[in-house]
Design a protein that fits this description.
Layout (H helix, E strand, L loop, with lengths): L24 H15 L3 E5 L6 H11 L5 E7 L5 H11 L8 H18 L3 E7 L6 H10 L11 E6 L2 H6 L5 H4 L4 E4 L5 H14 L9 H11 L3 H18 L6 H10 L1
Parallel strand pairs: 1-4, 1-5, 2-3, 3-4
Helix pairs in contact: 1-2, 3-4, 8-9, 9-10, 9-11, 10-11
Length: 263
Amino acid sequence: MLEFFEMKDVPFTREISPSQLFVASSHTEAAARLEYTARHRQFCLLTGEAGMGKSTAVRALIHQLDPMQYRYLYICDSALTPKLFYREVLQDFGIQPAFRSTDVKRQYQSLMLDIYENEKKIPVVILDEAHHFSESMLQELRFILNFREDSMSPLALIIVGQPSLRNQLKSKHLEAIDQRIQMRYQLSGLTEKETYAYIRHQLDAVETPQEIFSEEAIQAIFNFSHGVPRKINTLCSQSLLDAFVQGHKIVGESHIHRVINDL
């Protein structure tokens, strides 16, 4: 199929290099907020529907963090517990966790302060899939940020999840956590114009010399996907295969509708 469409690689995959990521207006705003969060050691909530590009935004942030100024840890674990959190942080930074949970918390606090005050770097902790967190894990966020009688925080904490997390944090018993959030942003889908640009960007990344998707096909892709990047990727990948099987060099609206029916 690559030779048929004169592509040097497979487009519309998750494996694209951070330097080649498509930057939509929503992601530009998210990037600015995440960078501000890291620089000023804040607590940020990043939300978006499944497939909207939350992990892509996080990848872009990690890619731009200067290792001379930051040390980061990314944890993606829907079953994360307070105990697992502290142990994973310590182990990732090369420290053997103590046996008792109280000692582990002290180790964690000492580590964060040491990185900030002695190494002169900002720890950036990113917790993905946070909409699956138990109440005990959400409650623990308050203590993760509590340093020196809650007078300062040496780290930036970014929690990432689906919009249901926003509603969950609005409940009365999690009000203390919600009030601590200093930065919030919800990713939105690509516009119709951005959808066209995104598809062109993906094809440029694999150096195909020709326009492959018709305007009608892109319109059908946008109408079905509502600008959700993951859905766009699926439709484009499947419709390319459908066109290839039929020997068509151009993906038309009929290919898109055939894929939609299969989905």
